[in-house]
Amino acid sequence: MDKPVATTRIQKRNVSIISEAALEVFSTYGFRGATVDQIAREAGLSKPNLLYYFPSKEAIHSHLLTTLMDVWLAPLRDLDASGEPLEEVLAYVRRKLELSRQRPRESRLFANEIVQGAPHILELLSTELKDLVDEKAAVIAGWMDAGRLAKAHPYHLIFSIWSLTQHYADFDVQVRAVLGPKVKDPTREAGEYLEVLFTRMLKVD
């Protein structure tokens, strides 16, 4: 991947501006629908100026995805093997839901990438993401084997948390259309519902 030019304070600021503009454009139009001209306009820069920092649309997209990966994986990294099992899982659900609330564009960016077959981050998914999920699935399986959580498939439990929390970012328009204008923050109601759902599923009688 081509790395952006960023050595001085101004150059670093411009890379940040371009990244923010690209996040807006890519999350709105997807990779295929986005153009360098759109990103340049959103950033308030000329196209030649933008291309000084990133040689192509592909380079901007790859930079954005790889720099955001740490943010996306942080909630799962925080699941603590030494904590109380049910509370750790519920805390992970809350962190993921909050991430969807605070960073809906990032969620849509990743969703668009995955739908396209993850051409830019497949290696990261197969290494960094897989290693982390393997580690945390083993922790969850250990809690279940010890009788501290009800039995469930640990990987599919993680997948279900992803889908049930990221839905509120990826399908925000649909959620708000169905719930109506009286519901200002759908994730608040969702948080209460998901805590009940996963508590009933995982609590040991």
Automatic annotation (TrEMBL):
- Residue ranges of DNA binding: 35-54
Please list the coiled coil stretches: none
Q: Which UniProt keywords apply?
A: DNA-binding
Spell out the Pfam families in the cross-references: TetR_C_3, TetR_N
GO: which molecular function terms? DNA-binding transcription factor activity; transcription cis-regulatory region binding
One example of a Gene Ontology biological process annotation: negative regulation of DNA-templated transcription
Keyword hit for DNA-binding? yes
Q: Where is the HTH tetR-type domain?
A: 12-72
What the entry lists under PROSITE patterns is as follows: HTH_TETR_2
State the name under which the record lists this protein.
TetR family transcriptional regulator
Q: What is the lineage of its organism?
A: Bacteria, Pseudomonadati, Pseudomonadota, Alphaproteobacteria, Rhodobacterales
